[in-house]
What we know:
By secondary structure, the protein is of the alpha+beta class. Helix content is 30%, strand content 20%.
Amino acid sequence: MEPAAEQSLNDSTCFPPEPPRKAAKLDDAFAFCESLASHFLQSSDFSANNIAAILDAFPSEDHTRTWLESDGDSKAITVGACNRGGVTAIRRNTRRMPAVAKYLAACLRLVAPQCEFTSVSVHRNLQAPMHQDSFNSSVPNVVVPLSFFSGGHIFVVHPEGPDQTFYEDASWTGFKLDCATHAWAFDAKHCKHFTLPWQGSRSLLVAFTVGHLSGLASDDREFLTSLGFKIPSRDVQQGPTMKPYPLQGYDLRCPQVSTDSAPLTQPSPAFPSAELPADGPLVIELCAGSAILSQTAASRGFAIMPVDHAHNRHTPKCKMVNLDLTQSHSWEVLKFVIKSRRVAMVFAAPPCGTCSAARHFRPGPPVLRTTSHPWGVPWASTRDWVKLKAANAIYKQLCAFLELCDQHSVPWCVENPTNSTLWELPCLAYPLAHGFFAHCQACAFGSERDKKTSFLCSSSGISRMALMCPGCKQHATWGLTSDDTFATAEEAAYPPAMCQALCDVFESEAARLNYVLGSAQPLLARAHKQPRGRLHPQLLSEHAAVLSRLLPRAPPLNHKRCLTQDVHGVPAGSKLLRSENRGNKGLFCVFGVFRSPESFVREAKLLYHPFDSLAQLPDYLIKSLFEQLTKSPAEICKLRLLRLQKWRARATELAPVEHAHRAKMQPSVKEILANKRTALLEEMAAEIDWPDKGLFSEMRQGFRLVGCLSPSGVFREGPYLASISESELMENADSIRASLLARVSSDPLDENAEELYDVTLQEATQKKWLDGPLTPGDIGKRFEAWIPVRRFCVVQKGRLRPIDDFKENLVNQACSTSERIVLQAMDHLLWSLSVLCHFYRKRGAVDFTLSSGERLTGLVHPDWQKPGASMQVATLDLKSAYKQLPLNPCDFDKSVVTLKDPETGSISCFVMRTLPFGALASVYHFLRVSLLLHALGCHLGACWSAYFDDFPMATHSLVATSTSALVKGFLKLAGFDFAEEKCTPFSSDVEVLGVTLDVSQSSEGLINIRNKPSRCEELNAVIEEVLRDKALVPCRLPSFIGKLQIPVSLDASGIEALKILQQRLTHGKPRVIRAGWKEKPILLFTDGALEDDNLDHGPATVGAVMFKPNEPNAYAFGCEVPANVLSHWRSDGKKHVIGLVELYGAILALRHWRKHLDGSRVILFVDNWPALDTLVKGDASVAIWREILMILENPQEASPCYLWIARVPSASNIADAPSRGSLSELSHWSVRVEVPRCPLSKVALKSIVSQG
């Protein structure tokens, strides 16, 4: 057991009232366990200590039949489902103690939110003999540590494992799972496994899934689901044996403390999840100021929405949402957000200036509120009344909003100074009646002043913030500071420790609501390209575990804040992440425990390259790919035909239903949807359980352009919030109209004016997309208030495209959505081609995993053996895409197309009847329809992707005709027009989305991508002009280059970079994607050291280690950086150039070992963030950094590898020792020492390590 001083963060003192005690006259042990679990659930208190308390209260049971002999403290409890004699039912303990079952399931979900299970056990000091769970499901078991112990590994027998051990006089190969460090998932059905000896008290939480789930009664299934068990949708009884993989995230031994300060990752399992990384639950911070709390919450895995007004005097730490909280519209937008997002906390710190107690001291500012005048004293000055009115508006609307939060089960918290008169306002009656107070002093969280702050929260968990002064010897003074600013201004931002503690409360609430923080999956690549940024989760987490301890005194630390000796079970070298002075209780410390270099390498070897993950693909496309591979060409063609015939027949049967829908439509909507079979599409969408349930009712009414757009469930969470309401927009219609009509009237006609007007006239008279032409007077008679939209044009490929400026007329600013759009058409297409190419060539077993955890397993059909990977591609475009969907008549008055008649010079107006090109809402609505068509096409058997109205397609040449007939037949059946003249026939190459995609070498597993020749020519001409003028001028650049807004002069390195770009455009090789699936990557570790006082070798040294899959030995080098190179880096006066040394080491390794890396998957681990950022971006703002990057350009062009750059902590970097002249960390491998050449001087570098 842990020492008393080492209390977890969920110490019971934080959660009044006290939990039940045995003195409560609960004679029945089961009832006592239930009362404990109920209390812990009510308090949202999930910890290993609490599980131990439940286990202690549980009656002893005889486990000798299934466990080896162990000490007298052995015990177990199991709840959930069981299977005995082929009968699947609920365990008796689950019926006796439903709260215990619910609590254990909730704890398991905190650690492994994506895992499925039917049963949960708690084991204490029980040693399992070698066995195999043959009668269970193939769903992996999960084991979670509940105590601190050493040893006690679970040995999983597996032919591909790196470890060996002896059991009963036999040698076994497999994986030795260190379940004392973190949780693991492993295949207990197909793999024999047993427990190794341990020291200490060993407690585990174990989840598993019983077999024969089809025999589980529906009532029993519903009961277990209501308790939080994640039961698979079907029996999973077969499939390839998977390798174990670690689960790193929530540590129940250190509750409410994530195992990292940022969202963590885990190595890809043998069959990685097909689900995109989820965004964390949302934290809304109102009156955010500097937004330091939001910044901290983001680092802990939350999505954030800091809100303040546009004139916020603070410099925000993250992107701010500007809303004026004195206006009712802003609160309507916030109501929309809490109704459409997963919100973990609404945190508000309303302005306290008018409520400040300092106003009651003299001399000082005037008193603005009294007990008899809580809303403001009548003698306040005009200026002060403005402040009072604004503050009162915020207070009243905030309190009403908090009541709405409670109605939607959204936690809330309000902060203000303890002595603020805000707490006495009448509008606070509801929050005061339904909230919990916590009072604290800022000095308890590291501030220099004893500012008294109070929190009023919907959760009792806020009590952990109730920390008063720990006994500081003195505090900084108030009043004016040395720079003549008020000390109160310095205390406006929360201390970092206070932000961390508040985030602990947020995490507790998220856990109670079953919200998962951030993503636990590795970062996903886009079209085989690594995204930039540090906030993405890394392939392996920074720490193996995070441990919390309550210590009597400050721990011994070095200059890096790492422990110099073991402290209460936390090993030396662990990093102090944060601390909190709890007065007489001691110092609460959170430590990050690093992996050893050997352990880090061991876990890294379990990784697959992110390019080999299907996580980018939606389930319906994965199912289509699986069908393409496991069925014969004849079966595929027959299936497609039968499915189309089925839906054609169903369309005939649904004709009366469609007629009834049309009878209720507005005339304009009915005309635009004339050919659409909405009833058929709705039934097809229901068959695939499409999440956008409101799509068809909105389509039949016409789509809105303003207001709060309903969440579709199709896109990712991420709000775009309106800055004005629809009513405010129409109130300003007169001024907007006058301004825009004046501009249209005064703008001169350009060379495209006549053609633009003719096109607009055709849209009205022939295509019926518009109603007109009309005069402004005619429009005024039709609408009481109306807003024009100015029409202009762009010319693309010699074709004029009309665009309506809905930003200028403020319509786009009146639109809110709770989702953000991420388009991945090229990603989907390339991943699909890569997977199909691989399996058509290699054949064998197919094992795909859907986002639900369901596995699709089978064999590539033998009929694909002879033709091999003969892939073809094509494109299909919808015709006048936006114009096929109707506009809601409610928005006719906000979309009056206005332009000048070039013949008469008068203003002509046209009423819009379809989705306009240029409106924010049009993009959202059209993509809802486009993605539905994409999903339905995949369901019918097509392999295609969707980018707005473009649908690139991939197919095997044997079924190309069938694929073309399928997609065209489907679109005609649904009533969507496509451009026949743009439909390219299936061939070995096609121009799609701005590039040429070439699959002529697909039989060799190669997919080539290059820029379109026309784009190369256009860009080459621009580069020639830039090189001549030595400057970039935005107005002369093609639109596809980017969003450069100001002219930029080029230095020598910029000119050199442009020359390389020009060379690649004209003579460069196409980008090649090599089809592959689950290939173990080459692992590179690099490091640099800079020690001017080093007497053994030069001040700057680099080291690297390479591990190749399926090779027992390692490759390594350790070398000095040449003195002249180091002098050059320091020529600008900078001495600490460690970043350059680290970058040099990484590029040196990539160049030296390029013969091994050519065409291979490679993961490069670097422990320096600036070097990592520079390698990912391929660019740097500092000239010397760019010089080093240029070394990498030509080798990567000539011999490209599939590179992913990942972070390794310095303490876990196996390359650290070689960079300092040692091979001590590599004693577990046979090492081949090499000596690279300097890429600058071409001379062999001086080695600082030797083979011996």
